[in-house]
Amino acid sequence: MQFWVVQGLNSLALGGLLFLLASGFSLIFGLMRLANLTHGAMFMLGAYIGAGLMRSVDGVSLWVAAIAGGLGVALFGWVLERFILRRLPDNPLGQVLVTLGVAFIIADACLLIWGGDPIPIPAPSYLARPLFVGGFAFPAYRLVVVLIALAAAAGLYVMIERTRLGAMIRAGVDDMQMARAVGIPVSRLFSIVFCLGAGIAGAGGVLAGPILSAYPGLDADMLPLALIVVILGGIGSLMGAFVGSFIIGIIYTFGTALLPDLAYIILFLPMIVVIAFRPQGLFGHVSA
Amino acid sequence: MTISRRHLIQGAAGFASMAGLSAGVSTRALAQSAEPMRLGLLTVKTGPLASGGIDMERALTMFLKERNNELAGRKVELIVADTAGVPATARTKTQELVEKNKVHALVGPLAAFEALAIDDYLREVKIPTLSVAAAEDMTQRKPNPWFVRGTSSSAQCAHPMGEYCAKELGYKRMITIGDDIAFGQEMSAGFQRTFEDNGGKIVQKLFPPLTAPDYGTYVAQLKNDVDAIFLAFAGSNGFRFVRQLNEYGLLSKVKVVGGMTALDEAVLRNMGDEALGIITTCWYSADLNTPMNTKFATAFRDQFKYDPGFYAAGTYVEGQVLEAAMTATKGNVEDKEALMKALRAVKMETVRGPVRFDEFGNVVGDIYIRKVARKDGRLVNQVIKTYKDVSQFWTYDQKAFLAAPVYSRESPAAKFLEN
User: Which of A82, B63, B204, B258 supports an S-S bond with B175, CB 3.0-4.6 Å?
Assistant: First the structure.
């Protein structure tokens, strides 16, 4: 019983964390048709900015650090989009290489600035203790991560489905040429979405900090997870990223516990099945 | 992860100090060789293993600087290569050091999988190599004649820990958890062997992937009717695992002990009170109270603001061993066979304590049981017991040890696992 309850909560916590990572990736991928391989590095950059801030300035709470990390990485994303990616339209190979190269640069820059040791990011003290759920101890902070992910999902949903900006993004995702033709400023939309995606990744990195810490290699650990979630859920679909994150969270948690020998491939199996039978992903649709 | 071509030629610094050569310096060997000795350092300065790799470079640079870049009367030019912790890059960099830079000896590499990647090449080109990589078979069933290891094999420190847990701490039932790489598996296996030989039982063995994003799912699996958990983690994983144990409220319920890299000085400096009281085993502690180590640790701390750990101390020890061997060959490093013989014949006092080598080039030395304590405001690994003169075969018969398969996930078989 304890096993199922605690692992169930673990699944949700991992799912929430993955959503914070993958939603931005999915947004960018959907609108810009750009596999942003910098995403893992942005997540790590956010974590380091947050950790560095909390370490050097007294009294900065995790929430402030998360906002700072999000803004810092969003700014970085804006520069990257405005000055580099914009010069490479319709050149997917070039984009992939550039984002991968920038990811390496970020990783080494972080190593240079913050060193090679892991930097812990403390959870707020009132969340740092275990919470007792039906007699089972579970870290309170992890439950909060789930709540934050749910809130982020709700916020993004409202933005995409209920606002003018969201309508433009949806139009761009579905048919870019037509969107341009009816006067949607697609290139400005690109900047906004890239900033937003980068910002969510940066804030997500800080919020994941109390669980993962900031350490060199975090980027490389995270990027494949983002790819898996997005491929499973469907490109450019917020719903897909949401459901995909929690499915992966559940499969990973129970998979490694029940079938430890499959720990390495457990994440890729569902992805392969989905690609084989539904290449557009669970919630993706074939776009023009 | 990255392919960088950073080189740092230390020779320039050495050149500058040449003006300072006084009459007091031995001129015996200088006459014989105007050319400096070229020493290659294979280390990791980029990517996830960089923390240890940077420490290796700092320690070796410091070691040479203390000696005016001169060993046994011969100038030393240090050439540093960054392998990024990637076996293929380690191989390329080794080739570059040997063929382009024409090094006489190598220090490094850091990781076992790097050492294995250059194993056959070292045999081919016959370059004396002083490594900190721990792979058991490099000095056991497939010994490389050009290899000297002044640190320890994977299980060398775990052996005494198994006995200590069973005999002195009185633990009966334990769990081992470690990285799913040869290093973690060999360490777990060595610990299990001596723990069970002394009456203990390993009831659960877990091997999370090296890059497990989160240990929550493993923490939830831990059996709760055990005396303690043995951690066989490397790098920052031990640090992450202990933090998560604490998050789940388990750290107060179960005792934690660890292998030689679980709570290294390098991660200890980023930990808090949760680490207090955790007992680990290693061939070194920055807190080791010998005049030589106090001098080294203090100098290192003054310069870099943190305690030297596994990689810094290990590389410093390799430097000391190299110096002793070069003194024995009177600074002659061109005769590689003679240098290799001298390296393995070294018997000396180092910062880690007394050191000598067995016929396979692996160190025989003291192993320390250490407990995390707070001292002058920082966390240190306080030595609480010393096992003298420990070889990689522990107290087992060498022939029987080598006849058995190398330590792994399945070997020796765990007889008491419960599910």
Answer: B204
What are B328-386's pLDDT values in tens digits?
999 999 999 999 999 999 999 999 999 999 999 999 999 999 999 999 889 999 999 99
Residues of chain A in contact with residue B48, where contact means CB-CB under 8 angstroms, are 215-217, 220
Please state the separation of Cα B153 from the chain's center in Å.
Answer: 8
CB proximity B51 to A under 8 Å: yes
Q: How many domains does chain B have?
A: 2
Secondary structure of residue B373 in the 3-state scheme: strand
A8 touches B: beta carbon within 8 Å:
no
Cα separation, B317 vs B301, in Å, equals 17
Render pLDDT for A58-111 as a digit per residue (tens, 0 to 9).
888 999 999 999 999 999 999 999 999 988 878 889 999 999 999 999 999 998
Q: Do B315 and B248 share a domain, yes or no? A: no
Q: Is residue B360 situated within a structural domain?
A: no
Does any domain span residue B20?
A: yes
Domain of residue B323, residue span: 7-127+289-351
CATH number of the domain that residue B162 is part of: 3.40.50.2300
- Selected residue with higher pLDDT from A284 and A204: A204
Return the domain boundaries, chain A: 20-215
Least CA distance to A11: which residue of chain B?
B217
